[in-house]
């Protein structure tokens, strides 16, 4: 079953398209969107998360058109982690999560659940401004999981993290991907080679290749990338 469907979609700003996707179905698992900076990854994710309305076409999630009245059935269950997003610096971790639990109308027991889920119990009374970048990223994911999302959208979640923290975050993402569909953008192939179920290569506002893990099993992903896009990634 397709979790996400693009039908004749053009996404852009001020009426000018910067991304065109004629037809695309995305199923369960971890889908990694690979491309250089400025290729259209963030625009793609803004469309999938219901923030950016298409100039043309439809984007459906679980069968619901994201920009129709029926979208109220699914849009609140899409969890988006924007690039370089951080929790409010003047709140402690638990204050921040309680604030959002109240905003979402979820129970306080959900705060305890996500504190444990994202290994935040020991730092729950720390000011968010005193957290490391990796800890801040986990707090942001915990906030998203207060709503028990049905789709997780991650925009460059390991940006500006050191290698060890990035590695641990990728392990966490892989674990979450067993439970809910994840769309994940990056320009670093080495990050995703062990976690993806589907690879979408994007260049100049177009999906230039769409592969399942089976399609590229045993292949060098760097060579695949060079072949389909003529680009260079780190």
From TrEMBL:
<dbReference type="GO" id="GO:0016887">
    <property type="term" value="F:ATP hydrolysis activity"/>
</dbReference>
<dbReference type="InterPro" id="IPR027417">
    <property type="entry name" value="P-loop_NTPase"/>
</dbReference>
<protein>
    <submittedName>
        <fullName>ABC transporter, ATP-binding protein</fullName>
    </submittedName>
</protein>
<dbReference type="GO" id="GO:0005524">
    <property type="term" value="F:ATP binding"/>
</dbReference>
<keyword id="KW-0813">Transport</keyword>
<keyword id="KW-0547">Nucleotide-binding</keyword>
<feature type="domain" description="ABC transporter">
    <location>
        <begin position="4"/>
        <end position="229"/>
    </location>
</feature>
<dbReference type="InterPro" id="IPR003593">
    <property type="entry name" value="AAA+_ATPase"/>
</dbReference>
<dbReference type="InterPro" id="IPR051782">
    <property type="entry name" value="ABC_Transporter_VariousFunc"/>
</dbReference>
<dbReference type="InterPro" id="IPR017871">
    <property type="entry name" value="ABC_transporter-like_CS"/>
</dbReference>
<keyword id="KW-0067">ATP-binding</keyword>
<dbReference type="Pfam" id="PF00005">
    <property type="entry name" value="ABC_tran"/>
</dbReference>
<dbReference type="InterPro" id="IPR003439">
    <property type="entry name" value="ABC_transporter-like_ATP-bd"/>
</dbReference>
């Amino acid at each position: 079953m397709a979790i996400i469907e693009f039908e004749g979609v053009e996404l852009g700003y001020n009426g000018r398209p910067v991304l065109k996707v004629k037809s695309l179905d995305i199923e369960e698992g971890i889908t990694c969107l690979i491309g250089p900076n400025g290729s259209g990854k963030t625009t793609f994710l803004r469309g999938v998360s219901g923030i950016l309305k298409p100039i043309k076409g439809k984007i459906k999630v679980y069968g619901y058109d994201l920009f129709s009245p029926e979208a109220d059935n699914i849009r609140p269950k899409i969890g988006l982690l924007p690039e370089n997003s951080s929790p409010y610096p003047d709140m402690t971790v638990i204050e921040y999560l309680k604030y959002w639990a109240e905003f979402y109308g979820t129970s306080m027991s959900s705060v305890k659940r996500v504190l444990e889920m994202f290994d935040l119990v020991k730092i729950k009374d720390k000011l968010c401004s005193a957290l490391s970048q990796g800890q801040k990223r986990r707090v942001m994911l915990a906030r998203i999981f207060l709503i028990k999302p049905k789709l997780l959208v991650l925009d460059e979640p390991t940006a500006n993290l050191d290698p060890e923290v990035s590695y641990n975050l990728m392990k966490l993402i892989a674990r979450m991907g067993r439970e809910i569909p994840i769309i994940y953008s990056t320009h670093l192939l080495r990050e995703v080679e062990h976690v993806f179920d589907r690879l979408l290569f994007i260049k100049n506002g177009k999906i230039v290749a769409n592969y399942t893990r089976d399609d590229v099993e045993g292949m060098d992903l760097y060579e695949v990338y060079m072949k389909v896009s003529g680009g260079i990634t780190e």
